[in-house]
Amino acid sequence: MSDCCNCGGTVELAAMQARQRRVLLIVMLINIGSCAMMVAAAYLSRSSALLSGTLDNLGDALTYLLSLLVIGAGFKAKARVALFKGLLILAAALAVGAQIVWRIRNPAVPLFETMGVAALLNLGLNGICLWLLTPLRHSDINLASAWECSRNDMFEGLAVLAAALGVWLFKGGWPDLVVASLLLVLFLSSAWRVLGMAWRGLRTPEQPAPKCATPE
Questions:
Q1: pLDDT of residue 128
Q2: Residue 132's closest CA among 119, 148, 144, 147?
Q3: Is the pLDDT of residue 90 over 70?
Q4: DSSP label at 3?
Q5: How confident is the model at residue 214 (pLDDT cuts 50, 70, 90)?
Q6: Phi then psi dihedrals of residue 215, to 5 deg
Q7: First-to-final CA distance of the chain
Q8: Domain extents for the chain?
Q9: Per-residue pLDDT at 124 exceeds 60
Q10: What is the pLDDT of residues 26-44, one digit of tens each?
């Protein structure tokens, strides 16, 4: 869908942008609340996989805020924001990698009960966000990158549930580290896609918006 206003489509464009703002505001607030819950759960459970979800939610809240601010902006502005989103995902991946290294050097068995409850709550909240963003994912590069972040959240939620189950079954911390490592790969892959999309957007010449003819 074009970012520019087609002649006679001003009302439709305004309605679409209002819907985008409403959805992004809702998912941003959901992620802020989920992040606060995950911070406490990650600290109490000593889970690297849960920490990755916390960092992801924090980055997503900022991502949705940036997406909200550039609704109605030009294509280049949205591409620059998408570039910043990709860098946020990359930073989260590096933080998870550092946590994995620290946990290997300081082994501990996470509390699977806390992990499981937090992961279930987070998965449900992320499901709501993905459901809200899916109809808008083809609107433009801004909503496409926001949807990418939300989809990652679903994978992350399922992975943390799997980690909690593994810790319970094997009575050890290694399933948590395995899942955190898989999430690290997921985040790196997602960062690569978003950064590539943003880079292509920055290299594409921005087309001027067509002007509607004025009556004589």
A1: 93
A2: 147
A3: yes
A4: S
A5: very low
A6: -65, 145
A7: 31
A8: 10-203
A9: yes
A10: 988 998 888 888 888 888 8
Distance CA 103, CA 174 (A): 10
Both structure tokens of 131:
């459901």
Residues 6 or more apart in contact with residue 208 via CB below 8 angstroms? 4
Question: Among residues 50, 43, 52, 38, which one has the least CA distance to residue 167?
Answer: 50
Distance CA 50, CA 110 (A): 10
- Identify whether the C-beta of residue 125 lies closer than 8 Å to the C-beta of residue 177: no
CA-CA-CA-CA dihedral for 17, 18, 23, 24, to nearest 10: 60
Span 135-185, pLDDT tens digits: 888 877 777 878 877 887 888 788 888 888 888 888 878 888 888 888 788
Q: Which pLDDT band holds residue 5 (cuts at 50, 70, 90)?
A: very low
Top CATH class of 10-203 equals: mainly alpha
How many other CB atoms are found less than 10 A from the CB of residue 142? Answer: 28
Tell me the two tokens of residue 81: 């924001």
Write out the two tokens for 97: 């990698």
- Residue 51 CA: distances (Å) to CA of 36, 58, 150: 12, 11, 17
One-letter amino acid of 129: C
| CA 97 to the chain's CA centroid | 18
